Amino acid sequence: MNAPEPLAALREFKNHDITPDVARPGVRYERRPARRPDGSTVAGLYNAWIWLDNPGQYNSYTTDMVKGVILAMRAASNDRAVSCVVFTGAGDKAFCTGGNTKEYAEYYAGHPQEYRQYMRLFNDMVSAILACDKPVICRVNGMRIGGGQEIGMACDFSVSSDLARYGQAGPKHGSAPIGGATDFLPVIVGAERAMAACVLCEPFSAHKAYQMGMLTDIVPALKVDGQFVANPLVETQRMVDEFGRNVYGEPKTGEALKQAKALMARGTVDLSRLDAKVEELCAKILLTFPDCTTKTLEELRKPKLDAWNRNKENSRAWLALNMVTEARSGFTAFNDGPKDDREVDFVALRQKLAAGQSWVGSLHDEIQPKGGQHG
Questions:
Q1: Which of 56, 152, 239, 326 could be disulfide-bonded to 138 (CB atoms 3.0-4.6 Å)?
Q2: pLDDT tens per residue, range 324-345
Q3: What is the DSSP track for 141-184?
Q4: Does the structure show a pLDDT above 80 at 12?
Q5: How far apart are CA 136 and CA 154, in angstroms?
Q6: CB-CB contact of 236 with 130 (8 Å)
Q7: pLDDT digits (tens, 9 = 90+) for 282-304
Q8: How many helices (DSSP H) and strands (DSSP E) are in the chain?
Q9: Are 53 and 28 in contact (CB under 8 A)?
């Protein structure tokens, strides 16, 4: 049976978009035909794909990109023909690694008033995701770290390549993960796991993220000799540890790690299964009442929204002031330090602060990595 032609408009619609052109440098907006579960396309209906398109810097968002995401989310929300929103990153290395540290270090560091204005845009980006009238699916094509993890958790669903890595970076790089992580993680994974993720900043695998309840689904993305294989860098078969707990996604070590890296080198990344799983989820959502779905989204978002709206303004103020002290040092170290050493000397910093040394003066330079531009 042939698909029916799109119905003619019954009335002339008003345009509720802020601007007719949502394109901004580093963000792409794309309408893709909606599909039924059998794969057939649906006339006149679409899914909106919003791409972070800065793969050379792991899709870290610049100021212009933040503006682009806000406008794109609003456009997708207003588009009467859009069923779902897919939020993703270009390439196969990263969904997003957070704010653009080059821009942070070279423009915002030491300028709290400027960073405060930037954080207004960032807050509006997170709020635009949480306020979208359509389901938002995070297609995790690679690393989802720092602020990238935060905007990913603002989405309603997350479907991930099993090669992706997750985690926070704040206290390791001069910030606090208060752009959503401290709001969303306790809701999603519980207080203790949220504490470990936000304070220790240790990255973890997609398998572990799935086990923790952060993901809707994961799919293999590494192809070796024409066949998909699970991420060889993590142990996915060890189901119970010595304490009787279920364990997934623990990193391999020793000889097993060497063999896993060799297998990785032989393989190629293929995201076709990720795309198929995203389309499958979009197709399932297509076969629901749209207004009932939107109301369900609004209710299920409330725990995240309640925490986010309660904290976002004082978080913005603190992050701006922090750009004079620890954020300035942390982002400078990451941007200017040598490739294998992009963190400040934390012990020296604590010693100097304990001795009463002021941030006004030489302290910033004294804790920078050796061998960097400020070392």
A1: 152
A2: 999 999 999 999 999 889 999 9
A3: -SEEETHHHHHHHTSSEEEEETT-EEE--GGGTT--STTTHHHH
A4: yes
A5: 9
A6: no
A7: 999 999 999 999 999 999 999 99
A8: 13, 15
A9: yes
Which tokens go with 284?
A: 């399932």
CA distance 102 to 83: 36
pTM (predicted TM-score): 0.92
C-beta separation of 153 from 180 below 8 A: yes
Domains and CATH numbers, the chain: 27-221+271-322 (3.90.226.10), 232-269 (no CATH), 343-375 (no CATH)
264 torsion bin: left (phi>0), alpha (psi -120 to 50), beta (else)? alpha
Residue 1 has a pLDDT of 41
**Model confidence band, residue 373 (pLDDT cutoffs 50, 70, 90):** low
CA-to-CA distance for 286 and 227, rounded, in angstroms? 31
Within 10 angstroms of residue 124's Cβ, the number of other Cβ atoms is 17
- Asked if residues 20 and 79 have their Cβ atoms less than 8 Å apart, the reply is no
**Other C-beta atoms within 10 Å of 112: how many?**
20
Residue 88: closest CA among 22, 148, 169, 150? 148
Where is 31: in which H helix or E strand?
strand 27-35
SS3 of residue 52 by DSSP: strand
Q: Which residues contact 236 (CB under 8 A, 6 or more apart)?
A: 207, 230, 248, 249
Report residue 305 as tokens. Answer: 């929204």
User: Average pLDDT of the chain?
Assistant: 92
Alpha helix stretches (DSSP H) within the chain: 63-78, 101-103, 112-130, 147-153, 181-189, 191-200, 206-212, 254-266, 272-286, 290-322, 326-336, 346-354, 363-366
- What is the rounded CA–CA span in Å between residue 64 and residue 25? 6
Q: Is 26 helix (H, G, I), strand (E, B) or coil?
A: coil
* pLDDT band at 22; cut points 50, 70, 90: confident
Question: What angle do the packed helices 112-130 and 63-78 form, to 10 degrees?
Answer: 20
Burial of 63 (0-12, 13-18, 19+ CB in 10 A): buried
Q: How many Cα atoms are found within 13 Å in the side-chain-facing hemisphere of 44?
A: 8
Q: State both tokens at 177.
A: 């993960």
